[in-house]
Design a protein that fits this description.
Arc Repressor Mutant, subunit A, Bact_HTH_transcr_reg, 242 residues, WH-like_DNA-bd_sf, six-stranded antiparallel β-sheet, transcription regulation, DNA-binding, alpha+beta, two-stranded antiparallel ribbon, HTH-type transcriptional repressor YvoA
């Protein structure tokens, strides 16, 4: 029986070995890696295969190859954060939605601009209140391009994550989620829904989901109570892909 190690391509093992040396501190930022010929001799592989391994390391942001000079170690970058909205909330992060309204809005200039319409626009709006246990935590409004003949089921409206809802409702495949985080004061209506004081500062999370053709497929705006919601993010360097 072939071992797992034998099933892993040699160029991938090369990349993993170099990654471990970088993460352990054996190889430091700016260090020059052995030449392609030296690596080929060490792993008993061709230069083409060595280049495949170096390409993986470069894609993971662990090395920088300079033509005529070689490949240099670069420190893993930790300035990119991954936000998990599904588990961002007070306590255990299990939010319970309550559907407030579903409407069809025609020819709203602001929504048409956000969703990239060039002519007549029909937009489905979904508004819901999110609870953590019995406490209202956030107000979420979703805006989707109207798709004739593709009704939204109640279970999709209440429980689907926004990207998942977009994927179920649109014919195009969502590939990018742009997010803007800001602060705003609660209106009288919003304060009443959140059982909070009017004009209390609130966290606003706006998401715009795009297709591969850079067409906006949907917009979500979540208004979060400042004391009942916490936004969690983790830094995953590109090297985590290896």
């Amino acid at each position: 029986m072939r071992s797992r190690e034998n099933l892993i391509p040699v160029y991938y093992r090369l990349a993993e070995d170099v990654k471990k040396q970088i993460e352990s501190g054996e190889l430091k930022d700016g260090d020059l890696l052995p030449t392609e010929a030296q690596l080929g001799e060490k792993y008993a592989i061709s230069r083409m295969t060595v280049r495949q391994g170096l390409a993986l390391l470069a894609e993971a942001g662990l090395i920088d190859t300079v033509k005529g000079k070689g490949s240099f170690v670069t420190r893993p970058r930790l300035n990119q954060l991954v936000i998990d909205l599904k588990h961002s909330a007070a306590n255990n992060g299990q939010l319970r939605p309550k559907l407030l309204a579903v409407n069809l809005i025609r020819n709203n200039p602001e929504l048409a601009n956000d969703l990239g319409f060039t002519g007549e626009s029909n937009v489905i709006t979904v508004k819901q209140l999110l609870f953590n246990e019995s406490m209202p935590v956030a107000i979420e409004e979703k805006f989707l391009r109207y798709q004739k003949g593709k009704p939204l089921l109640e279970t999709q409206l209440e429980y689907a994550d926004f990207p998942e809802l977009i994927a179920k409702h649109q014919e195009s495949v969502p590939v990018r989620n742009d997010m803007v985080i800001s602060v705003a004061a609660l209106s009288a209506e919003q304060a009443k829904l959140l059982e909070a004081d009017e004009a209390l500062p609130a966290l606003v999370i706006k998401q715009v989901i795009y297709s591969k053709d850079d067409i906006p497929l949907g917009v979500s705006v979540t208004l979060c109570h400042k004391d009942r919601f916490e936004l969690k993010a983790t830094s995953y360097p590109l090297s985590g892909r290896l």
